[in-house]
Task: inverse folding
């Protein structure tokens, strides 16, 4: 029970200190809103809007979660408050889960913005909500663990943002957000399937317009594997740098 109380206190502290700040709240609203509005305004039919909605949702989650963790953890490392957390009587894995849960919730909030704004243009009838919710959740978890991996691998905020972009921008172009994977050059398709967001976007495409290429269960399984791998690598990095 004490461990979960510590988990809750760390989460509440992060939410109050970082996620409830006006710039971060506005970022969580304005960024997905701007992307959604830009793509929706250039779309003329419901078919067009449904085709871009999975990509906008996935991109809003990806940039929101990774950006927040890059700032919060890197900032705490500079102020040495992160090191003080590491000596607390709480398992390192539970501690890292506490640090990432806020970013996961922030990503889920970002995902809701494009969905809500699309209601002004189209009807959401026909969407299979269970795969959509599962896909959104696993994209948020995987993106948060990617942000954690980046944050514990560098020292400065600008380094974290640079390394984040090294992963994020290839995902934007290769993971089927707006260009289907089967329309990419043959040489780069294996790289697309080596990136976790490809599977998350495919789930969203299946849920929203039934245009996914992979079985939903397979994409969910691959996302769980990616999330587990990224979390394990982050834990190993923390133990190697600060604990061992």
Result:
């Amino acid at each position: 029970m004490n461990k979960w109380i510590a988990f809750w206190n760390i989460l509440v502290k992060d939410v109050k200190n970082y996620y409830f700040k006006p710039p971060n709240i506005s970022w969580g609203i304005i960024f997905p809103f701007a992307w959604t509005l830009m793509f929706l305004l250039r779309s003329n039919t419901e078919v067009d809007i449904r085709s871009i909605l999975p990509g906008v949702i996935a991109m809003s989650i990806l940039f929101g979660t990774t950006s927040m963790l890059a700032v919060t953890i890197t900032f705490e490392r500079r102020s040495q408050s992160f090191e003080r957390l590491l000596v607390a009587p709480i398992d390192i894995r539970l501690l890292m889960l506490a640090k990432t849960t806020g970013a996961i919730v922030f990503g889920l909030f970002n995902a809701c913005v494009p969905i809500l704004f699309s209601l002004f243009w189209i009807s959401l009838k026909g969407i299979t909500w269970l795969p959509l919710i599962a896909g959104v959740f696993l994209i948020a978890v995987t993106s948060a663990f990617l942000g954690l991996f980046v944050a514990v691998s560098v020292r400065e905020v600008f380094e974290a943002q640079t390394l984040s972009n090294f992963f994020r921008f290839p995902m934007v172009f290769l993971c089927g957000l707006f260009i289907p994977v089967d329309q990419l050059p043959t040489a780069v398709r294996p790289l697309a399937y080596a990136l976790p967001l490809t599977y998350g976007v495919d789930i969203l495409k299946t849920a929203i317009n039934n245009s996914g290429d992979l079985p939903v269960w397979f994409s969910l399984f691959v996302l769980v594997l990616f999330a587990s791998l990224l979390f394990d690598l982050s834990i190993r990095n923390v133990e190697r740098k600060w604990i061992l």
